[in-house]
Amino acid sequence: MATDKKTMTLNLTAAEMAALEKLSDQKDLSKTAVLRQALRLYQLIDSRLAQGELLYFEDKDKKNKSELMVL
Amino acid sequence: MRFTFNKEWLQKNADRDDNLEIAAGSFSLDQLPPAEGDPGDRTTVLAFGRLINLCRRKRGWTIEGLASSARIDVSEAIRIERDASYVPGPRTVFQLSTALGLPRERMLQLSGNMIVRDRGLGEQAVRFAARSASVEKLSRQEHLALEEFVKYLNEPR
Amino acid sequence: MSDRSRTYLKDLRTGQLAEASLIDGVSRDEIERSESLWRPILLESLEIRQRSGIAKGSWPEHSHWDWRKKHAATEGLIAYRMFGVECEGDMQGLMLVSTAGHPCRIAEQRGKEQVYIDFVASAPWNSRELVDSPRYGLVGRVLIATAVQLSLAEGFRGRVGLHSLPQSETFYATNCGMTDLGKDTKKEGLRYFETTPAQAAAFLR
Fold it and tell me: Rounded to an integer, what distance in angstroms lies between the CA atom of residue A37 and that of residue A18?
């Protein structure tokens, strides 16, 4: 896969930047890597939902399931 | 992305990798029933447990010995032999088949991991389950039932 | 678009290393060509076994994997990457990995990102389970080294995870030095293996 990279400037609010920094710290990843992970997951989930699948969260006791509305 | 591979490193490790399989990922999902679907015909599952029990005893192995040879948990080996409703996972079936020299694909079918498409197998499983009533020592009758069923399992289709 | 990097496989007929290519971004055409070559060899070796009275049940478990389906299902999704090793013009092994959605499980790195190997297999003519005289060795090592390098490049520090088929457990535990986290009941009871950054570094040394 060709991996030539393109650069862009991203404008984030202070809260968004704080969230990005926190994730970057927790996940041991650069901010760019966090955003790339977010994009990969977003595209994957969007593609599955487009095929008619649903996305659920289940609590630890497996008693409650809630559908996550992504789009 | 470009990758680099050190020739000396590959050379150094080449011999120790010989003969080792590398497949990882999954069993053939297309042949497995859905996780929450029909757990399979109880009779074939019962026959699977009896088959494991008889093959183990024929070899004179204890349940611990069987678990050790097949590298599975002792508690699981006990459940397989005694609980007719227990459907072991594909890895366990694979390990047991290898340890006991039984055909893997048909073991997956008998154990409820794959759909039984072969009606003959279903009928033979019922016959085997009926003829191999549980007694402590492997009787001549059990021995004959076991031999006949294993022969059937190994016949090419 | 694909990238090719130079690598080597062991030609088991001569015992020498042979030049090969690691393909990042295997195309649909390459997959179709591989499958059309892999399938007859697979079927032939299975027929020989059958004629020799070897039970059908001893077929390798990955013989049913359909790489065309996997390629179609993941094409265009940036979370997936498909790699292949080519030698003598033929595909000698294939690997599908995910770079998102499979967080680490080892306690010290739980929740961290890693490269997860969804599927990996060598061509049937390289498997001793299928043929008496396999053609190439080192297919697994080259592909695992690829996964580790990808993990390093992604900033995942070499962390790699996979579910091994039973016959391959020795390769991952001993030869790759991965941690065996035991049976995963949510994944057909297969054993789950994962590397730490230190194990990944040791593997490449």
Answer: 17
- Tens of pLDDT, residue by residue over C30-61, are 998 898 888 777 766 666 655 555 555 555 55
pTM, full prediction: 0.72
Structural tokens at position B118: 């072969």
Cα B19 to Cα C171: distance, rounded to the nearest angstrom: 10
Please name every residue paired with C85 in a beta bridge, in sequence order, or none if there are none. C22, C93
Asked if the Cβ–Cβ distance from B24 to C188 is below 8 Å, we say no
Q: Within 13 A of C149's CA, how many CA atoms are on the CB side?
A: 18
Q: d(Cα B111, Cα B121) in Å, to the nearest integer? A: 12
Domain boundaries, chain A: 14-67
Q: Is C69 exposed, middle or buried (0-12, 13-18, 19+ CB in 10 A)?
A: exposed
Set out the domains of chain B in order of their start, with CATH numbers.
39-154 (1.10.260.40)
Question: Which of A25, A37, A41 would you mutate first to test chain C, the one with the most C CBs within 10 A?
Answer: A37
Which tokens belong to A59? Answer: 């609590």
Q: Are B95 and C188 in contact (CB under 8 A)?
A: no
C46 half-sphere exposure, CB direction, 13 A CA radius:
18
Read off the tokens for B99: 């340890």
Q: Given pLDDT bands bounded at 50, 70 and 90, which one contains residue B117? A: low
E strand map for A1-71: 56-58, 65-67
B143, exposed or middle or buried, with CB in 10 Å at 0-12, 13-18, 19+? middle
**Mutant choice from B4, B12, B15, B21 vs C, greatest count of C C-beta within 10 A:** B21
Burial class (CB in 10 A: 0-12, 13-18, 19+), B126: middle
Instruction: Give the model confidence (pLDDT) of A42-51 as tens digits.
Output: 999 999 888 8
Tell me, yes or no, if C73 comes closer than 8 A to chain A by beta carbon: no
In CATH terms, the fold of domain C3-204 is: Aminopeptidase (3.40.630)
The residue ranges of every structural domain in chain C are: 3-204
At residue C80, what are phi and psi to the nearest 5 degrees?
A: -115, 145
